[in-house]
Design a protein that fits this description.
Length: about 80
């Protein structure tokens, strides 16, 4: 791997350098990404609504599993318990 880089074709001006977006590892880039992350977060009401929706979906799935388990037990009977 060569570490010899060609010189730039022309020297960048200060205005061009300041107009460039901040680099990923620069402090300015870190602050900009942090602000964007804060803008994308949800409110507490949204989180509570999502949690309630997930809880309802979980309860519905649990009832469906219990109902299907009862149907299965009625069809084939209960399986014997294994003793270890």
């Amino acid at each position: 791997m060569s570490r010899d880089f060609p010189p730039p074709a022309r020297q960048a001006t200060l205005e061009e350098m300041l107009a460039r977006p901040p680099g990923k590892w620069s402090l300015k880039g870190y602050v900009q990404r942090a602000r964007e992350d804060v803008k994308g977060t949800t409110t507490a009401e949204d989180d509570a609504a999502d949690a309630a929706k997930r809880a309802r979906a979980f309860a519905d799935a649990k009832l469906a599993l219990l109902r299907d388990s009862g149907v299965l037990n009625d069809r084939i009977g209960r399986l014997p318990q294994r003793r270890i």
